[in-house]
User: Fold Bifunctional oligoribonuclease/PAP phosphatase NrnA from Pontibacter cellulosilyticus.
Amino acid sequence: MHNINALKELLQEPKEVMITTHHKPDADALGSSLGLAGYLKKKGHRVTVITPSDYPSFLNWMEGNDDVIVYSEKNDALVQRIISESQVIFCLDFNNLARINEMGEYIRGAKGTKVLVDHHLQPENFADLDYANTSAAATAEIVYELIKAMGDKDLIDAGIGEALYAGIMTDTGSFRHPSTSQNVHLIIADLLQIGVRTSDVHRLIYDSSSELRLRFLGYALKDKLVVLPEFRTAYISITADELKAYDSKTGDTEGLVNYALSIEGIAFAALIIDRSQAVKMSFRSVGSFSANEFARAHFNGGGHKNAAGGMSLDTLEATVAKFESLLPEYKEQLLSAIDNNL
Ligand code: 5GP
Ligand code: MN
Assistant:
């Protein structure tokens, strides 16, 4: 992790800044990006936020959302130009350029100073300035700390604060994961002080489902959940046709994997979805079992110890079969993952 003085020096004069985050941004990815963008604009920089793909509509309320550029083949030339003209390129909430698709190689070749702000495990070494902290609960927490260390805490207003709050709230599972440190609660106390509407943010993110999304959840839990108590594992697999039947939108499957993990005694949960171009996987674990190591070793992915993702170019059926066939070799780890002494 670099000293804050390096960032102070870099941002001393107004600069052309771009901020990007991972494919299918979640609330931490978008919230940390828009929170940082709001701050840097107040400091006089010209800031553009570019996401490598679209993101759920339940994030559209964030301040600065209307100015976000969503990469597509159609605006490829514009995005390439912005990347090549940026003096500073912030990479938020991911640590591996493969996570941002086509934009990864454009950024790798760009001449601007690359600044990594992230909390995932095992970063790829591509940044010039590194503000990664794997013990942070959220990238939004690191952004808050960076603004504070720059001596600019007073510039955090309700709009910036609500974007950062969204990132911290969602990445801590609404303040229940072990990552919810004392520092997290102190930050939230500060955000309340400046007028962040915490309850509204929670409602906007979690209580904005369409009727069809809720019926899809019911279907997935009733008909698609597979429970393997002998491996303390539960998973849900979803076909492309099922996504279509429920008119599934970006973000509609978010959180589904957590239901599989909420069964008593289950230590490992997976959500396996046929996204047509590839099969996308979400992994969650409790206790000592590392979802990150599992995703990394078998599904070209990674993330955090207890929350990771991966992908497969096999069919959905073959991916599910591979997933199930791997479980016996993890049996001991899975059976001992949960410490029940509490
Ligand atoms: P989710 O299951 O919510 O999509 O992702 C869980 C965590 O794993 C997030 O922190 C996310 O950034 C990370 N993640 C998801 N998919 C991938 C992937 O394909 N590769 C890597 N390295 N990380 C991923
Ligand atoms: Mn995050």
Notes: The pocket of guanosine-5'-monophosphate (ligand 1) is lined by residues 22, 96, 99, 120, 282, 301-304, 307-311 (CB under 6 Å). The domain at 4-206 is CATH 3.90.1640.10 (inorganic pyrophosphatase (n-terminal core)). The chain has two domains: 4-206, 211-335. DSSP finds 14 helices and twelve strands in the chain.
